[in-house]
Amino acid sequence: MQDQDLTLELQAQVQQAIESHTPLQIIGGNSKAFYGAPTSATTPLKLSGHQGIVEYEPSELVVTVRSGTPLNELNKVLAEQGQMLAFEPPVFSDTATIGGTIACGFSGPRRPYAGGARDFVLGCTILNGKAEHCRFGGQVMKNVAGFDVSRLMVGALGQLGVLLDLSLRVMPIPEAEITLYHSLASYGQALELVQRWQGQPWPLSALAYHDNHLRMRLSGSDDAIRSVAKKLGGEIDKDGDRFWHGLNVQQLDFFKGIENLWRISIAPATPMLDIPGRWLLDWGGAQRWLKSTATAEQIHKQTQAQGGYAICFRGAEKTDWLRLEPNLLALHKKIRLAFDPYQLLNSHRFSPEL
Amino acid sequence: MKSLKEMINPLSTSFISQCKTLVGADNVIFDPERLRVYECDALAALRALPLMVVLPETVEQVQSLLRLCHQHNVPIVARGAGTGLAGGALPVVNGIVLGLSKMHHILKIDSHNRTAQVQPGVRNLAISEAAKPYGLYYAPDPSSQIACTIGGNIAENSGGVHCLKYGLTVHNVLQIKLVTIEGELLTLGGNGLDASGYDLLAIAIGSEGLLGIVVEATVRLLPIQPCTQVLLAAFNSIEQAGNAVAAIIAGRLVPAGLELMDNAAIRVTDAFVHANYPLDAEAILLCELDGLSEQVEADVAKATAILQANGAVEIRTAKDEKERKLFWAGRKAAFPAVGRISADYYCMDGTIPRKHLAKVLTQINQYANDLGLKVVNVFHAGDGNLHPLILYDASQPGEYERAEQLGGQILELCVAVGGSITGEHGVGVEKLNQMCVQFSTAELQQFERLKTAFDSKNLLNPGKVIPSLHRCAEFGQMHIHNGQLPFPELERF
Ligand SMILES: Cc1cc2nc3c(=O)[nH]c(=O)nc-3n(C[C@H](O)[C@H](O)[C@H](O)COP(=O)(O)OP(=O)(O)OC[C@H]3O[C@@H](n4cnc5c(N)ncnc54)[C@H](O)[C@@H]3O)c2cc1C
């Protein structure tokens, strides 16, 4: 990994963009360009050179890292100290950066039990759309001084500022992990069992149903895991790690095929939605993957009726990618202007209107 | 010409009568005696009488009231239980207080999805009580939990003893309904684990009543852990205790709670609750571990070894539930215990990187000595959240001012070592000056613009949280004039 601080160069580029009214396309490792709607901007602002660990003290459980740092590299540095990013972000390619991961707000199978990307962001420095260098949050676990702007950056797809440095809470890698599975024929059965387990004080760290198999990962001390495994029954999946990784980076067979891949975020106990296609239940039911040729209208309607929302994660459904109530959309636009008054950063990454 | 009535109370008669029509005359308070209840929160040194208090009972009433205030340009301060420690619920000039105490119903406990849907005036502890029959509870547990409301918790992003493992309010709220100053009802967050678009839930949590009024919340419930154990370790120096904290965290343990008390705190609380604390210890650590019994057993062994290796002179493990409660009794009674030995006290709330614990505590005592004041320290050591209690006597001329000065110095010290001026109590009006130390002009203006995006007329809790640049300039000058600028190396404007 290089150690290179490009703050001043990036600031100059944003300043230049303001002066020349040139919208910018923020690019990290370009591994998640498939996600969201394409920005209308064509001038790149490249973050991948802005790399390196700024500060890392394992006993503080905090790492401060430049946004262009490859996720793989960061994971490696943390693992050397027995630590990890507990939100288990997917590494879609070697080029994936931590900045892009935070801008997309992606989290992996551990999310319901350990927390999501937004839960681990303690602070950030950004360039806002006025090319001002601002720092929000900090390197401490608890910090309620001013609005929680650093969490607002998570999932904002770069529209509220160019992420420069991120301070993230890290966690110890569990002493032991094991994956068990049960064979179950129906989604209904699986959902029921999943909710029963999640209501128990068990050290779950992933829970997914796919291909007639309900898999659960347990994390903790050796003894604790073994005792729960006994109570839960089921078979040990020796390939468990491979399964969770494949699920996380979407390389299981399930993800193949030309249908759109939809991500549905919903209350975990919600019964199966009546949408044709292939389903995979992750996050104990709170994140559901759907491979389907159903229309966007049909999918949004069914999901919203149950209080959830759907996003076309991969595929052709790019118009109206983001669906928001009119009053929320209006507020989004105002917030966007509060951070990026000239609308230069990643315009239209969410929709023609945002 | 204004009528005499308008000079006494600048709210127009039409505004007042519309308020009465909206919520019923019984829910509108004018009587000065009854208004007194609302003149301050738990930062009782600052008081102001509101012009009027309204107590809505429904979401629609809140919407209509806000619309009315917007139309008449009347500032509004939301209020839960008034246990805030930073003056967040302090009434503002020419404004009214919107009390949420009558919206206090638990709407639903959903045991399948493990959530509770509640109105804003529901007390924190009431949620866990309602969830208990399902084997579930609501994790954030501020010490004020029998009184404080979930609306106040959301506004302050409150924490508690167990947030080291279970997170702050922001980690435990899935969805809120927020009424904007224009009377619109927004749903932020989702019924799953996220929502589409920007994470507006994150920005609303901890916004101290500046962005909107929380009228409903859906919070996450967790399964009650089957086994809990607590260790009490005594140390001959704060430094050793501080190092032990770092070692526990570095040792891959995530305790449910990790609290530190200094000698002053040990003595004061023990005299009050007879917790049988080691009175000669310079510091004690309380380390709580929870989970399955096998996990707790393994963790206790590990924690004991780490504490020993870091110089603990005595380590006790609670024999039973009774003793566990006793270990905690002193910690939990810290406030009232201090109240017994000091006429007044002032609770601070800075956070620092853990590695600076010993250095910062020593420096705080030095500052206190210099000002002739005493400080008692009990705090959330695991997450570096200090709560120095400054003892003073308001009846002694100049003592309150010195206490305030010491508080300011402590917070600026926190910023200087890389921490924050508030970990969980919020900025309110109390820490406006220190906001000038922690943030640059550009950052404060960014806050300002974000506030304006929600509330362009600046009617929601105006004058709180974000200091005016003018104020910061004055504060900077005052500091320099007194020759006391504590950290000349810090960037400021
Ligand atoms: C003895 C004691 C111990 C404490 N211990 C802790 C602790 O361990 N951890 C901790 O974090 N805090 C602690 N506190 C501080 C306090 O209890 C918390 O800040 C609490 O969340 C405040 O809740 P409240 O209902 O009393 O809110 P209030 O004091 O009434 O209001 C607090 C702020 O929230 C706003 N507000 C209230 N309700 C709403 C709403 N519905 N919508 C929008 N804004 C609203 C108000 O305008 C104000 O700015 C303690 C306080 C005391 C007195």
Automatic annotation (TrEMBL), chain A:
Coiled-coil region list: none
SUPFAM superfamilies named among the record's database cross-references: FAD-binding/transporter-associated domain-like, FAD-linked oxidases, C-terminal domain
Sample GO molecular function, one term: FAD binding
Annotated ranges, domain FAD-binding PCMH-type: 1-173
Pfam families xref list: FAD_binding_4
Keyword flag Coiled coil: no
Keywords, sorted A to Z: FAD, Flavoprotein
UniProt keyword Flavoprotein, yes or no: yes
Top-rank taxon: Bacteria
Matches recorded under NCBIfam families: PRK11282.1 (NF008439)
Name under which the protein is recorded: Glycolate oxidase subunit GlcE
Source species: Methyloglobulus morosus KoM1
TrEMBL record, chain B:
InterPro entries linked: FAD-bd_oxidored_4_C (IPR004113), FAD-bd_PCMH (IPR016166), FAD-bd_PCMH-like_sf (IPR036318), FAD-bd_PCMH_sub2 (IPR016169), FAD-linked_Oxase-like_C (IPR016164), FAD-linked_OxidoTrans_Type4 (IPR051914), Oxid_FAD_bind_N (IPR006094), Vanillyl_alc_oxidase_C-sub2 (IPR016171)
Cofactor names: FAD
Keywords from the named record: FAD, Flavoprotein, Oxidoreductase
Keyword Flavoprotein: yes
GO molecular function, one term: FAD binding
Entry superkingdom: Bacteria
UniProt entry tagged with the keyword 4Fe-4S: no
Ranges for domain FAD-binding PCMH-type: 46-224
SUPFAM superfamilies to which the protein is assigned, alphabetical: FAD-binding/transporter-associated domain-like, FAD-linked oxidases, C-terminal domain
UniProt xrefs under PANTHER family: GLYCOLATE OXIDASE SUBUNIT GLCD
Listed name of the protein: Glycolate oxidase subunit GlcD
Organism the protein comes from: Methyloglobulus morosus KoM1
